[in-house]
Amino acid sequence: MPVPDLRQRFEVETPEHVVLDYEIAGLGSRALAALIDSFILLVVALSMVLAGYWLQRRVTGVPILAIVGFAQFAIVWGYFAFFEGFREGQTPGKKQMGIRVIQDTGHGITVRDAVVRNLIRIADFLPPPYLIGALTMAIHPRAKRLGDLAAGTVVVRDQPLEKEAGRTLAEPSDATLGAPLLDGREFSVLREFIGRAPSLEPATRVRLTASLVTRFAERVPGRHLDGTAFLEQMLRDESARRNSRFAVRAPRGVKSSSAAAQRLVAQKSARWNEFEALAQRATDRGLSSLNASELLDFSSRYREVAADLARVRTYRADAYVRSRLERAVAAGHNLLYRSERSTWRDLWQFIATGAPGAVVEARGYVLAGFLAFAVPAAAGYAALRERPALGEEVLPAVMLERADEGLERKKIGRGYAEAQAGERPYVASAIITNNIGVAFSCFAGGIFVGVGSLLALAFNGLLIGAVSGHYHNVGLLDYLWTFVAGHGVLELFAIWVAGAAGFMLGAALVNPGPWSRRDALVMRGRLAARLVGFCVISLLVAGLIEGFLSTSTASPSIKVATSLTSAVLLAAWLWNSARSRTPGTA
Rounded CA gap, 242 and 338, in Å? Predict the structure, then answer.
């Protein structure tokens, strides 16, 4: 009984009308790749800590450990997105396992796609370790986790094949199977000659051997065996073809398609090698590494190799040749049809108009995020004002202790939270990483039909409202909000925007509009990624203000002025992006 092929596959048609056949990477290879990447991250993180402590003892005046803490956060969160977005969909672990991430269309993954699929990793990880992600990969026909669904990506096998060097006709293998090279009469003549050859006169044997070799040699390009050995090997291979379950009889009068495939391989191998070398160079260094003539040559060779792939499939060439050309065409397709690499100018345009433009476009969702935060905040404030004793039951102990100490601190002119000048860089680093992590989680929670984002916003709103109510009860509301004033505008607005990004994912699942849920999720996920970028920029600035100004001894008037200034600048940032948008821009 033949062994069934249980591997999952999917096909993508290129603009050249050539179908690329991908094998989908399974849970095992992806899990091993994740373990390799996790080990690399662990080694890097430990190395940074050790290096940070070593430098801190030798360098004065520079907050080395604060920088190290922020860098660790950036590496942990950005490792997968960076490698997948800038290294052709492969982290070091994926490269080791021979797998890569591509778009559903077969194109190379973009940075935006990589960001979306890896931020949703938070949801895939729940409950630890990775239960939701493993379950969705197990049941989805393309082995997708939630991040792949949101980003429109799929993980495929990309295991490099060994070169065919050294492979000869001496050993029959699966490559010899396929359509017979000889018709029935030729096979009978060859079999009868090999059987009777030992009994023939030497001169007769030599003459008949030469005649048969001349007749059959063109069907096996590149042969290197002598006449007798060649005919004996051809008989073995031909018998194997005819006995194989893959055997296909060529119609009378029609040349064997396998012979045609072998002639094509002999004629085109050098051209394929040259194209593969160009594709590898462009993959490693980008298309910009090719000069003008090489770029034109690469484009024309790509079309030629795509046509050759269609021909070898028609000729029923062996699996090695088909796989080799499929990989070559896939590499060329991804290089020629992918998005351009990002530049520093693109980054500036994203900061200036792209990120705030997304907020303007998603203003309805931002309003929903504000309400999801503000309504519970008002409820929490009202509850604590009506029942002051409730504070002892629901508020964190640290907030109660700070409230108890607040009256004494206020009397001596000290603020809600103050830090020495040398401590402020560490405070800023901790605040920035915490707040950005909260924003990421709020966004990722949207994949659960928006419920995760709603709960995150509601909880934070309820907590802030309850704390404000308690501080009002003890006469310290101005004391609390004087501290919040400096950074609060940017920080709170960023959290609402993060919730809006999550709501966009949820809305795509609940109300996809004229699109399928899959397409709606991908399209709204791309806009949501820009919202997350806005959050990161805003929280970086807010964290610096909180760490260096809010924890300082600056007067309340300076902090309030900073709050007003940040509000004006935020409004100008959004207004400028709205003014520069044209109808139909995304």
Answer: 44
